Each structure stands twice: as structure tokens, then as C-alpha cells.
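Minutes, methods subgroup
Present: GH (chair), OT, SY

1. OT presented the first of two proteins processed in the latest run. Sequence and C-alpha cells recorded below as shown on screen.
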Amino acid sequence: MRRFADCLPLFALGVPSLCMSTVVSAAFFEDSTVALTTRNYYLDRDYKGDSSVSAVREWAQGFIIKANSGYTDGPVGLGLDLTGMLGVKLDSSPERSGTQLLPIDPQTRRAQDAYSELAVAVKARFSQTNLSVGTQLPALPVITASPARLLPQTFRGASITSSEIENLTLQAGRMDRVNLRDSTNNQLIAMASPNGRFKPGVFSDRFDYLGGEYRVSENFTARYYHANLENIYEQDFIGSIHSIAAGRGKLKTELRVFDSRENGRAEAGKVDNLNAGLTMSYQTGGHTFGMGYMYQTGDTAFAYLAGGEPVVLSDGTMSADFVNPKERTMLLRYDYNFVAMGIPGLTGMIRYLRGTNIDLPHLGGSDLTESSKDLELSYVVQSGPARDLAFRVRHAFYRNDLSSAATFRDDNETRVNVDYTVKF
């Protein structure tokens, strides 16, 4: 069997499959997993007030198949991860396209009938350290592959995860391209700039991150990450997750702090933002009561990668991101798990966010506000032939007092998802 060192020239030449064929072992197949997810997605964003577009409304069907191998035997195990994705248009028109469910022609605004892609990653494992090269789907505070549309956002690059030290997980990576949710093409990476917060049309071919999480105790985890989008911005993240028993329930507290600033040539302009968010939730029986507050200071908005959402207190909102310059955001949330009423698989959520003190003079002033009222109901079939079939309905009422030129405009938004995953 050829050793990993002998395979390095083949990897350098871009032919890992040839190398893999010489080192395949039983574990490569025995530990493999294959899963197919079908995702039916309807998105309806009905704009209110003064808007050049009255609504965007589309319906699509997605298919995501993931085939992940095990590792070959030996000191260094090798493996391969494949992800095939297909999106199919069910309903769309040029007058209401633009939901980011489907790619559209920028001139005609007509959505494609179908689009597909194949994602490939070669992986290696040594002891408790894993290396992956190829298509990446990171889920970290400083970089997250957004799953919020029909097909997920992906990145091209390399990542390494190490758990050699007990209770400590270290992660590092470098990405040079991004594949957006409504695209099949890898492209350079940009910083998000809704509401004209930063200079548009600026891209980078290098995003680096380094950090990790340390489990201090069974109930407390500390987190730190540093990220750098070359010549655009850099960011430090400090966070913690803590939970304790309290009365008949459990109290959970989460802190997220981001410090962002421009990097190198600052090609997107000045970046100066400190974002601190604290959430607390109390769970007892089927009830979970939550509240939170997010404070921003500095001269600019929060910095995050284009094509996704910021992993801050407002994470999960549908119509806006609540990270404008100097914005203060209050969060109230209530979740209920109907298992307490004898209906396992059924859950509901009500959430209210209100942002104040927004400083956007070019969009209306320095004391602007925005708010979102969110409702969600979901059900996952628990048994029988349709086990794991998932239904999810979400609705949001979003309002702000920014000018009509703002990226985020008043709307009522509905999303309906039907997902089903089959494991082979």
C-alpha cells in the first residue's frame, strides 16, 4: 500500500482520485455514509409602502445528496466527500423573481429552469486531527455557509480541525472562492454591504480564520476566533455558552462579541465596529422564554461575508440583519415544544426584535428604527414510512423608517419548507 508521503506529488498535480485508488481499505467503504435530502421551498416577500418592486415570490424543489467516505487504514487515513446539488424551478416569473432560490438572468430577470453542481473535498486524518481540501461548508461565528435558501452556500479552500488536547477543539482554514446560494460558479469573496454601508464591488481571494473552543466544564464553553478578509477587514470574536439548573428548569446564557476593523489596503473603506450581544433563555417543561440585547459602537456597520447572514444576536431573522452603524437591538422570544402536550415533533416560536439608534444619514437620519415580528411552526414526523419528513412554516412582519432607497424595506414575508432526508 502506498504511503501518504508517496501520494503528495499526485495531490499537487490535482489527481487525488488516482492516489486514493491505491490506498483504499475496507474502512473507507464500511464507515461511509450516503444521504439524500429533498427540499421543497416557497418564499414570498410582499413589500409594503414605497417600493419599485411589489413582491418577490418563487417556488422551487431542491435535491442534495451527500456521500462521505470513511478513512483508509494507516497512520494517515485518506477519504473523500462528495455533495451533489440540483435545484428545479416550480414557479417563477420575471416580475417577481429575486428570492435567491434560483439563479436569474440580470437583464431579463428570468429564473433558470434548473441548476446543479458537484462539490468535492479530499480529506485526511491523523490521530485527532482532520484536514479537508476542496469544497467547504463552515459553520463558525466568523464564517458560515448559509443554509437559508434552496441549496447551501459553499466555499472553496482548506480547513483543519484538531482535538488532540482534551476539551479543546482548534480550527483553522483558508478560503479563496465562494459559491453563492443561487449560483453554480465559484467567485471571489466580498464583504456584505446592504444599505450602502461599505464600498461595493470589492473582492478578495483570501479569507483566513483561526481559533477554537474550550470546554471549561460540562456547562461552560469558551470560544475565540480571528478572521481576515485580505485587504478588506479583519475580525476577532470572543464568546461563551453557559447553562445551569435553575428551579425546575435550565438557564442558558450566551455571549457573542465581535471586534471588526479594516485590513491592509482597506479596499472597501473604513471598518470600525464593536458588536456585543447577550442572550438569556429559561427552559422549563415545554416552555422556553428568552431575551437578549445587542449593542454596537464604532463608526461603521458590522462586517461579515456577502451571500450569507451575520452570526449575531439577530441570527435567523428573515428580512434584515440588524447590524447597521450604532444600532441597539432588543430581542424577546418564546418557544414551545408540544411534546409537553403529547405531540412529539411539533414546535412553535414567537420572536420580536427592535433596533434603534441606527445611524444612516444617507438613508434618513441618525436615530432610525427597525423591527421584526417572527412566527414559526414546524413538525417532524416521528415514526412510520414518512419518519423524518419535516414541515416548517415561517412568517415575518418587518418594518423600518429608513428611506425607500434602503436595501431592507417594509415587507410581510412567508417561507414554507418541506424537507425529507433518506439515509442509505
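2. SY then presented the second protein from the same run.
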Amino acid sequence: MKKSRIIVLFLALAAAAGAFMMAGGSSPPPPAPVAALPPPPPPPPTTDDVLVAAKDLPLGTRIGDGDMDWRSWPKDAIPAGMLRKTQDPKALDEFRGATVRSAMVAGEPVLTGKLIKGDGGLMAVILPSGKRAVAINIDSQGATTAGGFILPNDRVDVVRTYRQDAKPGLPTTGGDNFTTDTLLTNVKVLAIGQNVQEKNGQPVVVGSNATLELDPAQAETVILAQRTGQLSLVLRSVLDAHQAEAPSVVHEAAHGLSVVRYGTVSEDTGR
């Protein structure tokens, strides 16, 4: 083979080798750009603002500016009845001028049942629906109110003492013949005198009357009983204040009161 052909073949092989090396060592094309993902949404809030008393609010307080405020509260610890900002954003304005039915301390959550909107005196505001407030005369020294230890919100029995004339056919003992009847049991005391709550845990001063929370029928019984005898309040223990029981049932009669005890009727004229 001629030398010139050998040289041409060598150059061709060298060119092919160079082209191969250049093709193999070249950088790959850049990847296509990827669109950026949006940021993940923030986690849902674990707290909510609830309405609380900004300061101590005694019974009967008229709510004004600065008396209540919003405070952050764990969502899973908000009981029913609390006012949430997410549900009642205008609660501060809506309850301005409302009356406090149950005393609250600073920072205490405001429950809907502790405030009442509308005009009216203090006793009318705190009186539950369907109930009546009836005042009875009591001894200012506490003789008819457990020595003065009966306070607002206590539970009592109402006992009537009256003079009963001897009945025909029964022996007389001479002198006045007095007897007592338990007219009502487990009655709530709303006020003693004009005081409707204790002052800083201290007993209130005993007044000349006690105001009781009664239903309409009980109110009629007590009003009539005051005309026919002396009423006394018997203090109940807080342990049995809400126990269910069958109290004496008192019916109004044309000539006085009929007291029904366990199916037996006794009548008196209250003279």
C-alpha cells in the first residue's frame, strides 16, 4: 500500500476518534425549568377570643365601657355558653347596658346566663322566669331567721306559728293554744332586708324582712299565712338544699288554711 493512502486512512481514523470524544464529553442540555409550588396554607388557629370580665362585677352591675374584654382561650377548652368572638363579634356592644345577674370576678368568662338585657329593678332582673318575689316580716334580731345566720341564696323552710282555739269535744289546757305548720320547704332566699348578696364573704346585716323566691301558688299561701300567724324561716343544710322531697301542701280555705300532710287534712282559722 502506498504511503499516501496510509496517511489518509490514519487522518480519517483520527478525525473519527476526535469526533467521538467530542460527542461523548459534551454537557447534556439543561433541564426544563419547574414551576415553584405555592407555600402550604397556615394551620388552623387553636385558640379563639372569648368574652371575660375585665374587673370584678358585683351582682346588679350595669355593664359599661371597660367592664368586659376579649381574651384568647384554647378552642378545645371553651364550654357551651361562653361568648366567642368568631360567633358573636359584636357582643361587647350588644351587652353594653346589660345587668349582671350573678357576680363575676376579673378574668372570669362571661356566660350568657349571667347577663340580662333590658330595663328593670335589681330584684326583677335576678328573678327567674315564672317566679315571684314575696317579702315576709322577720325579727330584726334574728329570732325568726336562725339567729341571723340566714343569708341570700340560702335555702329555708317556711314555718307558721299561730293560736288555735280548742275544738269542741277536746279537753282544754287553759291559756293560749299555739301550734306550728311547715308551709313550704326548700325555698330560696333572695334577700335579707335590702341586701341581695354577701359582702366579701362577710354576713350581711339582718333587716326587718326577708324576700323569698316563690311560684304564684306559694306566693298566695305565704301572703295569707302572714295574716293568720307568725312566719319563721328554718335554715337548711347546703348538703340537702337541692334534695327532692314532698313538702307540705297548703290550700287556701274560705275560713283559713288547710294543711295537707300525707293525705290527712287539718284546718285552722288562724285566730
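Chair's summary of item 2: The first strand starts at residue 47 and ends at 53.
Next meeting: continue with the remaining queue.
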